[in-house]
Protein 1
Amino acid sequence: MSAKKFKGTGVAIITPFNVKGEIDWISLEKIVNYLNRYVDYLVVLGTTGENPVLSDDEKLQVIQHVISYNAGKIPVVVGVGGYDSQDLSVKLKKISAIEGIDAILSVTPYYNKPSQIGLYEHYKLVAQSSILPIILYNVPGRTGCNLLPETILKLASDFSNIIGVKEASGNPEQIMNLIHKRKDGFLVISGDDALTLPLIAAGADGLISVTANALPELVSRMVKAALNDTFSEARAIHYSILDFTSYMFKEGSPAGVKSALCHLNLCENVLRLPLVPVSIELNQLIKSSMEKFTLNI
């Protein structure tokens, strides 16, 4: 699949749970059907999907259900990462063989803080273990290590199935340096909703969004407008949803967006420990903020 399929708006979808803490398949179907009307691709089992608290069996079920509900309407990207490179290699060989997955999003190893050489070797094994395109995922605020531009550029040069990076370092200078030096066709995708507009202005290729779970039409319109150099429209949308976007992360993600989706009657406001729902005060702010938007559920 061409890397161009992942230019635009991807959404890192939540994993909905019922009041018993079980995966809510009915809500997941509603969410997929809501999102695939507006966004360009779905990202399953990312941070927003509460990946760390799902069993391996639950992860496979989520993948299979999303593929079934989506029915080939838009591409599906699956998050597969970890801090044990050899174990990850085994999982990738199995998961990348599942029909209906279009690419893998693989987060940098967390907790053990590898060097840049270690990160290169890790992703070398990832690339060799997957028959699918790989999108790297750099989010040092969560993982404790920063995948630097020179390492990304070397990986992109050495492995043809490494097609892009979701960049959530929060460092615009680092991201612009990568955009400036990347090879043709290599995607640089924003991993920060609030930074997406300036990053696209600097040459980024789109966004993998949390906010788009709740506001897929508005986020997609903003990204499309920015990619088409219609910055007056993009800027107006950006500022209209900026406060709401900040609420999505104020007490941690995906707690904020699950509150929003509950207000849209798309799922219960339930997370698995150690995550908990947002405070009563923030929940009300999210509800009040959403009332300003016309949403087509």
Protein 2
Amino acid sequence: MRILLVEDDPALSASLKQGLQQMGFAVELTHDGAEADAILSLRNFDLVVLDLGLPGMSGMEVLKRFRKRGATTPVLILTARDALQDRVAGLKAGGDDYVLKPFDFEELEARLQALLRRTQSEREGYLETGDLRLDKRSRQAFFQNQPLNLSSREVDVLELLMNRLGRVVSKDQIAEHLTGLDEEIGQNAVEVYVHRLRKKLEPLGIPLRTLRGLGYLLEKING
């Protein structure tokens, strides 16, 4: 598997490259944001590890441009910014997960493996986090292999949230996802569907968060 590592700290990037190669990745390394943007516009990778603080072009801008081109490759963000607002901004821009500096390589490895498992499951027609699984073909959700009693609308909302697991999804995005099924959906209806879904998920220990002014976030489940 091929991975693009974008990190401007020489010592850290060298250490990460060595560790990723030991995991079995073919690693391409760049220290510059503008160069990373050019590379991503020309070549395909299985994973991207992206620092936010880069010369040439910020990691946030690299990420936004990458997603604007329609790329779905998993992106793990490296950031020293520990404010919630910064983390949410990175996820909202299209990041799939993040690791705060300083970090242990074991944590990075675990998060990369989780991203790979999720990508594989999506290709196989289902979405999964922890013991929660959604079969996209049958439109049936399961928790610990037991079916969940969800309405069609609740499945639609869950599918969108699981497709953007760990990322903020706005009310407008949910409404757009639902509109056209049989009628136009407003934000009040979105709140109702999310509320009903939350009531069924939270007793199972599945966190569905509301971020005021931003939208909703289905958090990853360990396991």
